[in-house]
Amino acid sequence: MNPSQGSSVPSEHETVGAYALGILDDAEATAFEAHLAGCEWCAQQLDELAGMEPMLAALADLPGSGSTPAIGDSLSARPSPRLVEKLVDDVAEKRAQKRRRSFYMIAAAAALIIAGPLAAVAIGGGSDDGGQVAATPAQATFSTMSDKKSATDASTHVSATVAMAEKDWGTQAVLELKNVKGPLKCSLVLVAKNGQRVTMSSWSVPNWGYGLPDAKTEDAKKPLYIGGAAAFQPNEIDHFEVVTFEGKKLVQVDA
């Protein structure tokens, strides 16, 4: 929108269209250029109108016909300030609409790129109607990892499976956690053969818990899948522990 609408602004703002069309005299052009040096809005509008002058010049080269004045003569006439202002607003709005359309198309494409791989990885079950439920990124990674170790603690009854993959920089791991009730704050801790302990990830367990087969809600029936990483290679790892922030061990998984 032209800033002259609804507010008092310097008259130089109304000159940007005429300047873009090249119809200002030398004194007016010099005055506008001095204003342009400190006016971000006029600079933006001038950029929006860039390229119009060559288009008009091309039209001016077309021959006139009969009693109709030559197009070049018509274009050489100085437009009224109101016409120039309307021209600026119309062009700016059309350019803005084009930018908005481009933004929405880019956003939609990005959503498809992000959602596509995740939507393609699905698991059967997980809902009362027997339909498919899209896997989370961690769950999708877990399903592709072949090296898995599992354990269930006899006292807490918490079950865990740790999937591992060797990397140049160490070990990538994804934890599947079941039969844990909240509220809790927990960590996945790697214990190396040399005795070092490294926290690979941490999370909160909500009141309803994770991986509870007799739970009343589907969210509580689903296991937790959470990823982690450490600088140790798989052959340097002794075991993994799931521990609370208070230091209670919920389950240990030997590597």
Automatic annotation (TrEMBL):
<dbReference type="Pfam" id="PF13490">
    <property type="entry name" value="zf-HC2"/>
</dbReference>
<keyword id="KW-0812">Transmembrane</keyword>
<dbReference type="InterPro" id="IPR041916">
    <property type="entry name" value="Anti_sigma_zinc_sf"/>
</dbReference>
<feature type="domain" description="Putative zinc-finger">
    <location>
        <begin position="16"/>
        <end position="43"/>
    </location>
</feature>
<keyword id="KW-0472">Membrane</keyword>
<dbReference type="InterPro" id="IPR027383">
    <property type="entry name" value="Znf_put"/>
</dbReference>
<keyword id="KW-0805">Transcription regulation</keyword>
<keyword id="KW-0804">Transcription</keyword>
<feature type="transmembrane region" description="Helical">
    <location>
        <begin position="103"/>
        <end position="123"/>
    </location>
</feature>
<keyword id="KW-1133">Transmembrane helix</keyword>
<protein>
    <submittedName>
        <fullName>Zf-HC2 domain-containing protein</fullName>
    </submittedName>
</protein>
